[in-house]
Amino acid sequence: MITSGPTRQYLDPVRYLSNASSGRMGAALATAALELGHEVVVISGPVQIDYPPRAHVVPVVSTDDMLEASQEWFKKCDGAIGAAAPCDYMPRFVESQKIAKTGAPLTLELIETPDVVATLGQTKLPGQWVVGFALETEDRRFRATVKLEKKHCDLIVSNGPSAIDSLDNHVELLDAAGDVVASVHGSKQQVADVLLDHIQQRLIGRVSG
Ligand code: C5P
Hints:
InterPro entries: CoaB-like_sf, DNA/pantothenate-metab_flavo_C. GO terms for molecular function: catalytic activity. Strand 2 and strand 3 form a beta hairpin. This protein is 30% helix and 25% strand. Helix 1 packs across helix 5. The chain is globular and about 60 Å long. The protein has one domain: CoaB-like (Rossmann fold, 3-Layer(aba) Sandwich), CATH 3.40.50.10300. It is of the alpha/beta class. The strands form three sheets. The chain has an eight-stranded mixed β-sheet, with helices on both faces. The structure holds cytidine-5'-monophosphate (C5P).
C-alpha cells in the first residue's frame, strides 16, 4: 500500500489548506512495485497526475479520510510506504458557508490532524512493515532518524524541499538503526526503483523468509 499526494483541509466550502505535493513519487513507487510483481493499492489525495493503470487507486480528500482508508486497506497488505504529504493541520471549526471578507485580519485556530504513517507503524502486525518519508529543510538525517523511531517505521526515506513538485529527487534511505543504506539522485522513477529494490531485499525478503 502506498499513500501518495497531498490532502486538503477545508476552512469553508471553497478554501482549503494543503501541501505542495504532486503525487509523482507515489506514482513512481507504484510503478516500481508493480514491476516487481506486487499488487499495489494507492491511497491518494487530490492530484493531477495519473497512477499506473494496474494500481488500485483509492481517492481521498482529508487526512482523516486518508487515515481511515489506509487503516482499512492495510489489513489486506504486507506493508505500507508513506509517500503522501498529508496536511498536518486542520481548522478547529469548519464554516458551512463561504467566509466573507471584512477588511480585518482573519485568525484561524488550527489543530493537528492524525499522523497516518505513525498510526500504521503503531498498529502494524508482526510481519507487516512500514516505510516512511521525511522531508526536512535542515538537520535532515537526524530529524529523519527521530521520525523513524517515533513513527515505528522499518525504513525511512529522507529528502529535501527540492523534491516538491519536481521530476527529480535526491534521497537517503535510513534503516531502523539510523544508518544510511542508500543514497540516490535521479528521476523519481530511478529513485523509486532503487528504493523498491531495498524494500524488497530488506523487508519483503525478510517477511517471506
Ligand atoms: O510530516 P512528516 O515530515 O512528519 O512526515 C513524515 C512521514 O509521515 C511521511 O511518510 C508522511 O507521509 C507521513 N505523514 C502521515 N500523516 C501525517 C503527516 C505525515 O502519514 N499527518
